[in-house]
Amino acid sequence: MLITLNGKSKEFPDLNEGASVGDLVSASGLKGDRVAVELNEEIVSRRSWEETFLKSNDKVEIVHFVGGGAS
């Protein structure tokens, strides 16, 4: 499936039409507890990832949280 991920077209050969947002997060190698997802300019709550389905040419933004701070 072809998805625009963070502004770049990317092919996900292991995902088919109807794959969930959760499937995409896993296929991207990210930990689900450390990311936020936007699908076609709408934020998807984490509890809705498995019920939110993708189709080719969807636009997804995934933001990865990084720990740290001033010491």
Describe this structure in words.
It is a single chain. The protein is mostly beta strands. It has a single domain (2-64), classed as Beta-grasp domain (Ubiquitin-like (UB roll), Roll), CATH 3.10.20. The chain contains one helix and five strands. InterPro entries: Beta-grasp_dom_sf (IPR012675), Mopterin_synth/thiamin_S_b (IPR016155), Thi_S (IPR010035), ThiS/MoaD-like (IPR003749).
Summarize the structure.
The protein has 71 residues and is mainly β.
Task: Write out key terms for the chains shown.
71 residues, mainly beta, Ubiquitin-like (UB roll), five-stranded mixed beta sheet, 1 helix, globular, Mopterin_synth/thiamin_S_b, Thi_S, Sulfur carrier protein ThiS, Beta-grasp_dom_sf
Number of domains: 1
Classified in CATH, the superfamily is Beta-grasp domain
Q: Spatial order of the strands in the main sheet? A: 2-1-5-3-4
User: Helical residue percent?
Assistant: under 10%
- CATH-assigned fold name: Ubiquitin-like (UB roll)
